[in-house]
Specification:
heterodimer, A: alpha+beta, six-stranded mixed sheet, 8 helices, 23% helix, B: mainly alpha, MetI-like fold, 13 helices
């Protein structure tokens, strides 16, 4: 394989991050597409920027690629300020959402395009193109035009072209969005395996939370131009910092209330779900006595049998609907505060009546206390 | 798959009728005249077809056809010279048109989206006036005491008026002026339809802005350039008005020779034969462009 392996971030003794966004802003007229974002991405990391469309994630990527210059702050790669460096002089390559394959060139010529600009000798270029095409399993299709390829093949051709120059960082703009659903998960796995094999730092942009969670080492969530939380997929899912993050990464049940911290042991949340407060973990973001919002994932809510003994954090509700999903059954439960909660009952658990009262329990550690 | 509709036959028939009535039939008539003999009569050639059921009459007419007109074309070097001069003039004019038209089309295509329709309309404004009148206007500009020379003299750039009118230069100026929209519009059509991602991708893969133009924009605009070149080259080869009004006696272009054979010499068969040969020769570049287009099935995007 023609790639130099780079040290993984864990083994390197505290290396400076490969990419640093320092207080970066980008304005289109009065609108801030990116609003004072600071972020560090380590060498060899698979980092994903996640957010709804228009949140500024693609603008951030384009500033890294050099297609946009920040209005404020700076972008640093390998300790070097990238201000004023044009796209063709930046040691990173981008895979476009549209793939942007040159329609007048064959697949092999597309892959060779970036190598030509490097001025590699012909023999080396040919060899490298062949290696890249083998890497993405397109060695039989080098002479074809992009429009003679299937969607998945086009995606792989674009990947080969972007990786051919062995960039320090590969930028991926919605790399799987144009593929159909079945192909998406398969291609996603390939992408992850490829990233681990070549060791290149990947920075990906997506609006698909499943994709981000499945592929990335760390995810940065953006909302309206701001980076609202950065962390591993597990941390983001289990310890979201805000209602937006909690709601963006999968389903979540919410309840407003007041937070009461208690040093040592569980803290408490007073809500309209029941008269007694609920036990919950201490919150990092909500001060004691302040209004707060309780969040629980549907799969963490337990359904109790009618004759089960009293349990901690027990709640009463009324089942409004039950939908069989195969691996689980989704209940819609009307809670005491009038909101509907979603509860996932795994297949094999005791069956629940599709209507009528139900006893629920929320383990304290499953609760996240968020700002209101 | 699109379902076939009953009207499909009529849709194909309409252009077919058009082609037969307005392309094939006139060419057939010209071909017939080219095989006739010049005569002092009305029409000025013989034999003349007449609708009759008498087979002998048909046989007599067909027997009267001869290749004399084509022999005349081969015998007198005037015709070959006129043909080559026309092709050369058309080639030079088309080259100039491409050099001038490409930047113009590019500027139109890169203009702010809202102003593009107005700019394209401005390219078409000259068509509101007859070509004849516009060509006469060029005489007023180019003649020795015309606007151009007056301006040059006034600015002190020349000591004596330049002799431009009645030269090949004047013909080239007139041709480039008249045909510019035919070059600009097809180029504009392919250039305006660009994909920004392709240019970004080229920059991302190490191409400078100029490099991205040469490796992406230029090759993708070739179909437009080919269409524009055909739209200019072919009519210019047979152009009559502009060389006749702006050119000198030393510019024996095809159009003028055909005109003088028809109207001055009243030799319709030679004029018809010349037209026919020119038509056949001009199919060449069309086939060439088609072949190039087929070899490069690059999607215009």
């Amino acid at each position: 394989m023609p790639f130099r392996r780079r040290p993984a971030p864990v083994t390197a003794p505290e290396p400076g991050p490969l990419i640093r966004f320092e207080d970066v802003s980008l304005r289109y007229g009065p609108v801030a597409a990116v609003d004072r974002v600071s972020l560090a991405v380590g060498d060899g990391e698979f980092f994903c920027l996640l957010g709804p469309s228009g949140c500024g994630k693609t603008s951030l990527l384009r500033m890294l690629a050099g297609f946009e210059e920040p209005d404020g702050g700076r972008v640093v790669l390998d300790g070097r300020d990238l201000r004023g460096v044009p796209p063709h002089r930046r040691p990173l390559n981008m895979m476009f959402q549209s793939y942007a394959l040159f329609p007048h060139l064959s697949v092999a010529e597309n892959v060779a395009y970036g190598l030509r600009r490097l001025g590699l000798p012909r023999a080396e270029r040919v060899e490298r193109v062949a290696a890249m095409l083998r890497l993405v399993r397109l060695d039989q299709h080098g002479t074809r035009r992009p429009d003679a390829l299937s969607g998945g093949q086009r995606q792989r051709a674009a990947l080969a072209r972007a990786l051919a120059r062995a960039p320090r960082v590969l930028l991926l703009d919605e790399p799987l969005a144009a593929l159909d659903r079945r192909l998406r998960s398969e291609t996603g796995r390939e992408l992850k395996a490829l990233q681990e094999a070549v060791g290149t730092t990947f920075v990906m942009v997506t609006h698909d939370q499943e994709e981000a969670m499945a592929l990335a080492d760390r995810v940065g969530i953006m909302e309206a131009g701001r980076l609202v939380q950065v962390g591993t997929p597990r941390v983001l899912y289990e310890r979201p910092a805000s209602r937006f993050v909690a709601g963006f990464l999968g389903d979540v049940n919410l309840a407003e209330g007041r937070y009461a911290a208690s040093p040592g042991g569980w803290s408490a949340m007073a809500t309209r779900l029941r008269t007694a407060p609920l036990s919950c973990p201490p919150s990092e973001s909500v001060p004691a006595g302040a209004a707060a919002c309780l969040a629980v994932r549907p799969e963490r809510v337990r359904v109790l049998a009618p004759d089960a003994p009293r349990t901690e954090n027990e709640l009463a509700g009324i089942v409004a609907a039950a939908t069989f999903l195969g691996a689980a059954t989704r209940l819609v439960v009307r809670m005491a505060d009038g909101r509907d909660w979603s509860v996932l009952v795994p297949a094999g658990a005791q069956p629940v009546a599709a209507s009528g009262p139900v006893r629920l329990a929320v383990p304290p550690e499953a609760i996240a206390v968020l700002p209101p | 798959m699109r379902p076939r509709r009953g009207g499909g036959g009529a849709v194909i028939l309409a252009p077919l009728v058009w082609l037969v009535a307005f392309v094939l039939a006139p060419v057939a008539i010209v071909a017939k005249i080219s095989l006739s003999e010049s005569a002092l009569a009305q029409p000025p050639y013989r034999p003349v077809f007449a609708w009759t059921t008498d087979l002998d009459a048909w046989r007599a007419v067909l027997g009267g056809l001869r290749l004399d007109a084509f022999a005349t074309l081969l015998g007198d070097p005037l015709y070959l010279r006129a043909g080559l001069a026309s092709l050369a003039m058309a080639a030079v004019a088309t080259g100039l048109l491409a050099l001038l038209g490409y930047p113009l089309a590019l500027a139109l295509a890169r203009a702010p989206r809202r102003s593009r329709p107005i700019l394209v309309a401005l390219v078409l404004v000259p068509f509101w006036t007859s070509l004849l009148i516009r060509t006469y206007a060029w005489i007023a500009i180019l003649k020795p005491d015309g606007l151009l020379n007056a301006a040059l003299l006034h600015l002190g750039l020349v000591a004596r008026p330049l002799a431009i009118l009645d030269t090949d230069a004047a013909v080239l100026i007139g041709l480039v002026y008249a045909y510019l929209p035919f070059m600009v519009l097809p180029l504009y059509a392919v250039l305006v339809d660009r994909d920004d991602d392709l240019l970004d991708a080229a920059r991302d893969l190490g191409a400078s802005p100029l490099g991205a133009f040469w490796t992406v924009t230029a090759p993708l605009s070739l179909p437009g350039l080919a269409a524009g070149a055909l739209l200019c080259f072919i009519p210019i080869t047979g152009e009559f008005v502009i060389p006749d009004l702006l050119g000198g006696a030393g510019t024996p272009m095809l159009g003028r020779v055909v005109w003088s054979e028809f109207f001055a010499n009243r030799d319709w068969p030679v004029a018809a034969a010349l037209s026919l040969v020119a038509t056949l020769v001009l199919i060449g570049p069309i086939l060439l462009v088609r072949a190039v287009a087929d070899r490069r099935p690059g999607r215009v995007a």
